[in-house]
């Protein structure tokens, strides 16, 4: 009996993952509005009825994926070595996740940070004030490493805002390269690394 339950649970997890991967791929290719539940179901090789067993619609699926990546980034930052300065910890956490995205591009959440009206609209549909939530998640992860104090909170919130802006800039830059026909653009993690390195150089040079 327990073996049968285990197989059913594994099948459910695989089906859910297939639906999410199909949805993220289609949304990245053709946009949120143009992607239908029928298309997602067909790409995942399931019925629409099966789709609705796992998600309450496109918006629910997108929100689920956004929250998933938010939580993963939070954990990655929180678990960085304690001796790393806040901005360095965030930068290395984002580079690590970028490397993971490169291995699984169909699940890449780059649409969350793209600089186009369509992508902003799609992100707004996924969750209230989504970029702010990402900034707060970064800040909360840093506070979990350092402890809560007035100074730590101020610094953590600043790093959260700056790091999300850097991540957006890296994603926009890479999209621009692809739009210009670049056949061998830098790996995503390299673009993120270089963006943070540029920020560090600017801050070191002073006002």
Question: What is the level-2 CATH architecture name of the largest domain?
Answer: Orthogonal Bundle
| Backbone structural class | mainly alpha
Compute the number of structural domains. 2
Tell the overall outline.
globular
Using only C-alpha atoms, the radius of gyration works out to 19 Å
Order of helices and strands: HHHHHHHHH
Helix content: over 70%
Q: Stretches where pLDDT falls below 50 for ≥5 residues?
A: 113-118
Q: How much beta, percentage-wise?
A: under 5%
Q: In total, how many beta strands?
A: 0
Question: If you average the pLDDT, what whole number results?
Answer: 80
**In the CATH hierarchy, what is the class of the largest domain?**
Mainly Alpha
Number of helices: 9
Q: Give the end-to-end Cα distance, rounded to a whole number of Å.
A: 68 Å
Largest sheet: none
CATH topological fold name of the largest domain = Tetracycline Repressor, domain 2
Explain what this protein looks like in three dimensions.
This protein has 207 residues and is mainly alpha-helical. It folds into 2 domains: 1-55, Orthogonal Bundle (Arc Repressor Mutant, subunit A), CATH 1.10.10.60; 57-205, Tetracycline Repressor, domain 2, CATH 1.10.357. 76% of the residues lie in helices and 0% in strands. The protein is built from 9 helices and no strands. The protein has helices spanning 2-30, 37-44, 48-54, 58-78, 86-103, 117-126, 130-146, 150-179, 188-205. Helix 1 (2-30) crosses helix 2 (37-44) and helix 5 (86-103) runs antiparallel to helix 9. The longest helix is centred in the C-terminal third of the chain and has 30 residues, at 150-179. The chain is globular.
